[in-house]
Design a protein that fits this description.
The complex is a heterodimer of chains A (324) and B (79). Chain A is an alpha+beta fold and 324 residues long. Chain A contains eleven helices and 16 strands. Chain A is 30% helix and 30% strand. An eight-stranded mixed sheet of chain A has the order 7-8-9-10-6-2-1-12, with helices on both faces. In chain A, helix 1 crosses helix 7 and helix 4 packs across helix 6. Chain A starts with a strand and ends with a helix. In chain B, 0% of the residues lie in helices and 53% in strands. Chain B contains no helices and eight strands. In chain B, strands 1-8-6-3 form a four-stranded antiparallel sheet, with no helix packed on it. In chain B, strand 4 and strand 5 form a beta hairpin. The chains are: A alpha+beta (324), B mainly beta (79).
Chain lengths: 324, 79
């Protein structure tokens, strides 16, 4: 087993590194350990608009990234340790136990009463400490897992609060779980994440392992993947499966009269392809025209609405909220 | 010649799978070995490569559909 301990905490770099190693390092088995600065990480085939609170995320400094493996949305910070096994796989269909069993056994040896839950989680009692997902390609498998060590989980709730609008799609949904941090369950509460990581490695590989680092050419190639894919709107937002959005709102105009705004949107690859806006039962062609063909997002919609006639009468923020 | 593309059976137990994405659009050229579509089941993404070279002529399912193994999901025109 060769082990790479990433020194970067950039979510786009680490996800690009995972893909680069998965597709190019075919000679043996690898384990990558990495952690990210505050970020939201989506499963490969999820609809980002169904998972995150667009307004809260765009107003925050939190990065949003789509990963290469399946499953749901998770929040990462620097107290969450990610691990990725890259190994060979004869069957086209993987099982989780080949990776989860040694991980659980290593945690148990460290005194953590961890056990498998559902198909791909690790939990202490009923509370999840680790989720995992995989990608399979050409006889290789990438198994990616999280280990909640001492994460601040309160931020997540705010950023993942779903829209009040109704979204219809066939995307992969997230399953919300009750979670806990590993550190709380350790005898030694002073153990840092780095110490935990070293202990974990010793317990995972009692016979030893080889520590390697990336060379300059690897880092340059990963940089290209970051620039062309992982940091791009087209990958993070545009890959979302098509969906239908519907929301009925009541807003006050400047004379404090209530107006009914009914919005129906068709969104494909993150672009508004169909737009129906009714204000007090009448179609508003100006808004429909302004939004059709544009990206679906808080800032984008706000900007487009700001030049429409209705804004003189209804506050821009309140009008924008009708579309999110 | 037209070749039917089936939902693959990735394991003995697999009876159906969710088509997660088409990586090619109808009318587009596909080379043998290129990823044609992806399946996601139990948080596992499987990239499925095309066994044929040709034009993707028709697809019968869309992303998000659960499909029985061996069901025909697309046609590639190899002429």
């Amino acid at each position: 087993m060769k082990v790479i301990d990433s020194t970067s905490t950039d979510v786009y770099f680490n996800l690009a590194m995972e893909e680069y190693l998965f597709k190019n390092f075919m000679d043996t088995d690898y384990l990558i350990l990495w952690k990210n600065h505050d970020s939201i990480v989506l499963g490969k085939h999820q609809n980002i608009f169904e998972e995150i609170n667009l307004l809260a995320v765009e107003k925050s400094e939190i990065q949003v990234a789509r990963r290469n493996t399946g499953g749901g949305t998770v929040f990462h910070d620097e107290q969450n340790l990610n691990y990725s096994f890259i190994t060979s796989q004869d069957e086209g269909f993987s099982n989780y136990d080949q990776f989860l069993t040694p991980m659980i056994s290593a945690l148990n040896k460290m005194g953590i009463p961890a056990a498998k839950r559902r198909n791909s989680d690790i939990a202490i009692g009923e509370q999840k400490i680790s989720g995992s997902a995989q990608t399979i390609k050409k006889g290789r498998v990438l198994h990616h897992g999280t280990l909640l060590y001492d994460s601040d989980l309160s931020l997540l709730k705010k950023l993942l609060k779903p829209t009040e609008g109704k979204i219809t799609s066939k995307s992969v949904k997230s399953v919300r779980s009750d979670v806990t941090n590993i550190k709380k369950h350790l005898g030694d509460l002073s153990l840092s994440l780095d110490d935990f990581k070293e202990q974990l490695l010793k317990n995972l590989f009692p016979d030893g392992f080889e520590r390697i680092s990336l060379n300059d050419a690897d880092i340059a190639a990963i940089g290209v993947l970051v620039a062309e894919k992982y940091s791009q709107w087209e990958w993070n937002y545009g890959l979302s499966p098509k969906f239908h959005f519907e929301k009925k709102s009541q807003v006050s105009d400047k004379d404090r009269q209530s107006k009914k705004v009914a919005v129906k949107l068709e969104i494909s690859k993150g672009i508004i392809t169909g737009c129906q806006v009714m204000v007090d039962g009448l179609a508003n062609a100006e808004i429909q025209e302004a939004l059709t063909g544009g990206r679906y997002g808080y800032q984008e919609i706000l900007k487009k609405l700001s030049s429409t006639g209705l804004v003189g009468n209804i506050e821009l923020d309140a009008l924008t909220a009708c579309f999110l | 010649m037209k070749k039917n593309i089936q939902m693959p059976k990735l394991s003995e137990q697999m009876e159906s799978g969710v088509l997660a994405s088409w990586n090619k659009e109808v009318g587009e050229m596909v080379e043998k070995g290129e990823v044609l579509f992806e399946i996601e089941t139990e948080k596992v993404v499987s990239e499925v490569e095309s066994m044929e070279s040709g034009v993707l002529e028709a697809v019968f399912f869309e992303a998000g559909d659960e499909i029985k193994t061996e069901e025909i999901i697309a046609v590639i025109n190899c002429d």
